[in-house]
Amino acid sequence: MTGRGAPHSDATNPHPVGRAARDRRTVLAAALAMLTLAGLPLSGAQAEAPACSATQVTVMTAEPVRYDVELALTAAEQAQGLMFRTEMAVDAGMLFVFDPPRPASFWMRNTFISLDMIFVDAAGQVLNVAERTVPFSETPHRSTGDARAVLEVNAGEAARHGIVPGTQLVHPAFGEAPDPFRCPG
User: Fold this and answer.
1) In this structure, what DSSP letter does residue 93 have?
2) Cα distance between the two ends of the chain
3) Contact 69, 55 (CB under 8 A)
4) Considering 22, 23, 56, 86, which has the largest number of Cβ atoms within 10 A of its Cβ?
5) CA–CA separation, 52 vs 137, rounded Å?
6) Taking the model in full, what pTM does it have?
7) Spatial distance between the Cα atoms of 63 and 60, rounded to a whole number of angstroms
8) CA dihedral 138, 10, 171, 151 (to 10 degrees)
9) What is the pLDDT along the chain (185 residues), one digit of tens a residue?
10) Within 10 A of 110 (CB to CB), how many other CB atoms are there?
């Protein structure tokens, strides 16, 4: 990580209402197809959600990938983030959760390892990705809309797994996710 920069007030939602509804239908159809290909059982028009855990994030790419995550929920945890760490397991990350969602801005001050920063909306869909961030840089990396969360993983993970805007993430923090990806409760 990263420290939280001041909220960036000129961030806008890049998805007009009509396009957003169409995009959600497209994502849902693609998700159902991926679940079918992955061998997950379908019940009627809905699929069972991938396993939900507060300490894991599942990224629904062509081959879903799961990261064990540390949560950064408080202002102090978010300010500290992954600073001063010299390594992180390949399947690990940190999930910064914002309540309510807001524009997010992160930098790499005092961060020794290069990261991919994945900015995610309240529905669990990737807004944008800052790939291969430069250690110690104070250049801000901003969300392209209101972020419910930011998932930080090792640099190169987004490219390796095809994590791009619109990719669906599964975690209890994403209460507005489409039904197949919404965690129970």
Assistant:
1) E
2) 30
3) yes
4) 56
5) 34
6) 0.75
7) 7
8) -10
9) 444 443 333 333 333 333 333 343 334 434 444 443 344 433 333 344 467 999 999 999 999 999 999 999 999 999 999 999 999 999 999 999 999 999 999 999 999 999 999 999 999 999 999 999 999 999 999 999 999 999 999 999 999 999 999 999 999 999 999 999 999 87
10) 17
